[in-house]
Amino acid sequence: MIGILLLYFIGKYFKTLAETYKKKPWPWVILGIVVYFAGTFIGGGIIIALICNIVEYDVESIPDMVLNLLALPVGLLICWIFYFTLEKNWKNNSAANDVETLDSELL
C-alpha cells in the first residue's frame, strides 16, 4: 500500500513538472516511475550485493523486506536527481526560447 502511494506521488510530481513546462505529462510520469524502479534495482540488487560480497556476507540470508527498505532511499535519490535534472534542463531551454522570442519581437 505504501508503495502504491509512493508511485502516486512520484507520478504526481513528474506530471506537475511536465505541465509547468508545457510537455506531454504521461510519458514523463511513466519515465519517472521507471527511473524509480531502476534506482531501486541498482540500489537493492547491485550495490547491496556488491557490499555483501566485499564483506563476505551471504546476501540470501537478508530478508526481502530489509533489502526493499535498503533499496528505497537509493531509488528515491536517483528519481530526485532525474527530476531536478529535467527541471534545470527545461528551465534553461525555456529561458533560451524566451530570449529568442524577445529578439524576434524587437526586430
Task: Give an overview of the whole structure.
With 107 residues, the chain is mainly α. The chain has a domain at 35-81. 86% of the residues lie in helices and 0% in strands. The protein is built from 3 helices and no strands. The longest helix has 43 residues, at 64-106. The radius of gyration is 19 Å and the shape is elongated. The termini are far apart.
Tags for this model:
mainly alpha, 86% helix, 107 residues
Structure described in brief:
By secondary structure, the protein is an all-alpha fold. It contains three helices and no strands.
Q: Mind summarizing the main beta sheet?
A: none
What is the alpha-carbon Rg in Å?
Answer: 19 Å
* Helix/strand/pairing category: mainly alpha
Average the pLDDT over all residues and give the rounded result: 86
Parts with pLDDT < 50 across at least 5 consecutive residues: none
Strand content: under 5%
H/E element order: HHH
What is the first-to-last residue Cα distance? 57 Å
Q: What overall form do the CA principal axes indicate?
A: elongated
- How many DSSP-defined strands? 0
Helix content: over 70%
Total number of helices: 3
Write the layout of secondary structure elements.
Elements: H1 2-20, H2 25-54, H3 64-106
Helix pairs in contact: 1-2, 2-3
